[in-house]
Amino acid sequence: MSLLSRFFYKRPPDGLLELAERVYVFDSCFSTEVLPEGIYQLYLHEIITELHEEFPDSSFLAFNFREGEKRSQFAEILCEYDVTVMDYPRQYEGCPILPLSLIHHFLRVSESWLSLGNSHNVVLLHCERGGWPLLAFVLASFLVFRKLHSASIPAIHIKRNLSLEWPPPERPLSLDCLILRAIPRFDNQKGCRPIIRVYGRNLLSKDGLSTQMLYSMHKKGRHVRHYRQKDSDVIKIDIQCLVQGDVVLECVHLDLDPEREVMMFRIMFNTAFIRSNILMLNCENLDVLWDSKARFPKGFRAEVLFGDVESSSPPRAHTPMLNGEEKGGLPIEAFSRVQELFNGVDWVDASDDAALWLLKQLSTMNDVKDLSMLRRMSGYSSPVDSEEENNASSVADSLDFLDSEKISGPDSIC
After folding, report:
1. Residues 189-232: pLDDT tens digits?
2. Does residue 214 sit in the same domain as residue 129?
3. What pLDDT is attached to residue 317?
4. Are 323 and 338 in a shared domain?
5. Residues 278-281: contacts with CB under 8 Å, at least 24 apart
6. What's the pTM value of the predicted model, to 2 decimals?
7. Residue in 223, 227, 221, 159 with CA at minimum distance from that of residue 196
8. In this predicted structure, what is the pLDDT of residue 389?
9. What is the CATH number of the domain that holds 286?
10. Which terminus in the chain has less CB density within 10 A, N or C?
11. Among 328, 360, 393, where does a domain finish?
12. Is the residue at 165 inside a domain?
């Protein structure tokens, strides 16, 4: 069977790498070379033209992971070739990952698209320069979701929560403190002055999905301490911050010059997956700068401790302290197929209601013409759009095409 599949294998169009059947990735995503605007347009023109020739009965949906808030050049060009484009952010509060809701939205939409159109529809994936870490995660997530990778671990099929709901509900928690086991070396005294900031959802906003800084340590006074390896081997920092959903905890080293900060590490997590109210991570699990790993001693570990919240009702507005300043994983086997795509190419330096509504609409469509009709007839406005439409790290721009009043806007999807 393997021999027959190779014999009848159809090579993908030039400029595309095949991830799975009818799922392709643009090879420019893995190149350090930045194509000039004219050449880039020609590059996309040749690829899409060949795709239409090889798949004349197919409709195309392209996912693009972009930088910034403006509509991408990629979307502008592909819309001229009857390709539906969905723009997603390529990071969340500085971390090369997306909120859980957006990852789940991407998987559901791609699954639905591939099952429509008599199995002729095609999915394309593209990221802008520097976005390959997120793209690799998204591709691996897709392989796990579709059960396409061969090195499947039975454990990934076991849900640790007892509820039938998936993804599990994002329960509110109190982020009590951060404990560092061993002292990182970020100055000439073999120590550090850690400053903690916490970013997450603003639950008091109109849609509850916009993000903001939830907590920030003051840079002056007794809040900033200097820890040295010879004096201590444990750092405990009290935080006491209410969090829910996707959260980014950032730890920076404050230099003697209070205006100069050095990134130590970032931690991103979702409260739905916190068990026993503790999150324990070693250096390999932290998001650190590529040249900072040697600063962390062997056996370094970060522990984030949480507390239960008695009431799950939306929190009240936070009151700043008088003497402070408070402002409001996938298994590694899943990446094996992704790594095959990267061989031989240059590397780059380093509301669920809306989603369900969209899926129901997609299930009734057969081609791009139906999608165009949906755009003209629908007056639906995405509930995940923020008030000022300026929060790309929390809102899926992929639903903007459903609002006919914004069809020509910078974030619309053709």
Report:
1. 999 999 999 999 877 776 666 788 999 998 776 668 899 999 98
2. no
3. 44
4. no
5. 278/303, 278/304, 278/305, 278/306, 279/303, 279/304, 279/306, 280/304
6. 0.55
7. 223
8. 41
9. 2.60.40.1110
10. N
11. 328
12. no
Are residues 247 and 127 located together in one domain of the fold? no
Tokens of 39: 């050449």
As a whole number of angstroms, the distance between CA 301 and CA 294 comes to 14
Catalytic position from the list 95, 127, 241, 251:
127
* CA within 13 Å, CB half, 141: 19
In a domain, 244, yes or no: yes
Contact of 177 with 237, CB cutoff 8 Å:
yes
User: What is the total count of domains within the chain?
Assistant: 2
Last residue of a domain, one of 328, 343, 364: 328
**pLDDT tens figures, 115-174:** 886 778 999 999 887 787 888 888 888 888 887 765 544 434 444 444 556 667 888 999
Computed from CA positions of residues 296, 297, 301, 302, in that sequence, does the dihedral angle turn out positive or negative? negative
Residue 294 domain boundaries = 173-328
Same domain, 142 and 18: yes
Average pLDDT, the chain: 74
pLDDT digits (tens, 9 = 90+) for 61-116: 999 998 877 788 888 888 888 899 998 888 777 777 788 888 889 999 999 999 88
Whether residue 334 is predicted with pLDDT greater than 60 in this model: the reply is no
Tell me, yes or no, whether 160 lies in a domain: no
| Rounded Cα–Cα distance for residues 224 and 192 (Å) | 10
**196/289 same-domain check:** yes
CATH of residue 54: 3.90.190.10
What SS3 state is found at 216?
A: strand
**Do 7 and 147 reside in the same domain of the chain?**
yes
Q: What angle do the packed helices 352-362 and 100-115 form, to 10 degrees?
A: 10
- Of 70, 51, 71, whose CA–CA distance to 61 is shortest? 51
CA angle (8 as vertex; 4, 12 as ends), nearest 5? 135
The pLDDT tens digits for 277-305 are 999 999 888 988 888 889 999 999 999 99
Q: Are residues 276 and 338 in the same domain?
A: no
Is residue 206 in some structural domain? yes
95 as an active site residue: the answer is no
Contact (Cβ atoms closer than 8 angstroms) between residue 397 and residue 411: yes
Sequence length of the chain is 414
8 A C-beta contact, residue 362 and residue 112: yes
3-state secondary structure of 223: helix
